Amino acid sequence: MKYSEYGTPVKIAYIGGGSLNWALNLMSDLAHDTRLAAEVRLFDIDRAAADRNERIGARFAGVSRGTPARYRTVARIEDALDQADVVVISILPGRFADMANDIEIPAGYGIPQAVGDTVGPGGFVRALRAVPIFLEIGKAIRDHAPNAFVCNLTNPMSVLTGALYRTFPDIKCWGECHEVTKIRKLAAWIANREAGETRWDFRDIDVNVLGINHFTFVDRITLADRDLMPAYRKFAADHADAGWREREPAPDDEHARYFEDRNRVKFDLLNRFGIAAAAGDRHLAEFLPAGDYLKSHAAWGFTLTPVDFRIRYQEQKRARAEDLASAKAEPRAVRSDEALIDQIAALMGQGKHVSNVNLPNRGQLEGLDLDAIVETNAVFLEGEITPINAGGLPPELEKIVLDHSRRQMGLLTALAEGNYRSLAPLFCSDPLVRDLTERDAHAMFQEMISSTAHLLPSRLAAEAA
What we know:
This protein is an alpha/beta fold. The chain has a domain at 8-176: LDH C-terminal domain-like. It is 44% helix and 17% strand. It has a six-stranded parallel beta sheet, with helices on both faces. Strands 7, 8, 9 and 10 form a four-stranded antiparallel beta sheet that branches.
């Protein structure tokens, strides 16, 4: 297969190719990019959604700044993986109705959740649905694309990235998350305010990342070799009580209301632990007891995202996608905030790229278990992903992170080995569940398992609770 001389050839297998979010971001990024000549194979159990994205991809190809990417729907995962250079995975484990149960059942026991997709009762049960699927995807990659680089975009990211390594230890996989972008954007805003003009964006900001996905921290913030941490600490202290956001959302802007925050949790964690929190407040709050932030979330400047909004928002995205596919809307070659296109280009030999990613711990994060999935910076260079030694977290914070990491890896081990009776004690040990009586915690777990049993392996559903 021949490509234009103006782009480096890359074959991308997209698992979950009917995606309404990440797939369209990648299409826009490929249209904006001038480094790659991509062939993208779209595989999805919803064939109609993948077919729609094939049509959308062709329209993005028509506005490309470089060599137009080519999109093709395939019927089998094996067809997508054949000779793939890169595999991208973004799937929804279950339906929004299942996510509604993940949120509403714990709420009935007095446990609020802002997101419910990473830790806490919602994240735990979501992992039960997704890990068996990822174990099978890992086998398919092992058998049909063992040399491919694999990017996981699906939550709960730590557990699911670990599941791919569990099945295929030699896999070249990373988990990609944009949450750290939030502190980089804030640091750029502080620098621009000091300069009195907009000179920099978040890509100009370098941070040293430590933690696990959605519970990430940074102990260095630099801009062109300037240490921005003193300015950031002062800004956080000045806004600790009222919080801060760049602009207030319009009254009818539900997306901003439910997905943005005032950074008060972020600033408070800096005060508590002496290290800057990087992820968004909605995620950070779920790693700590509900009494810390979740039960008084309004006072802390963030909301609990209702599933009915997620359903409405999904329908808005679906309508937008249908308009793109039918030429009622025009595609634009606009670069997203995601790092994936730069990571792929670097792996294909187009320079060097550094960004935060989720990888097995080979010692890059001190204090956490080896092989646990941790989030630090890594260098992407032709044919290589190399984690950067990040150092360690403050002792009190390290204890919290280690507790979550071991629970995540324990969950994965239980599912991979079929030891389903060990799941309930792990579930009950989460900080959001610990305050319940043992009876209520087990009752909640049984209720959540029953609500999603149709999406679980039969023996898991029968034995877990």
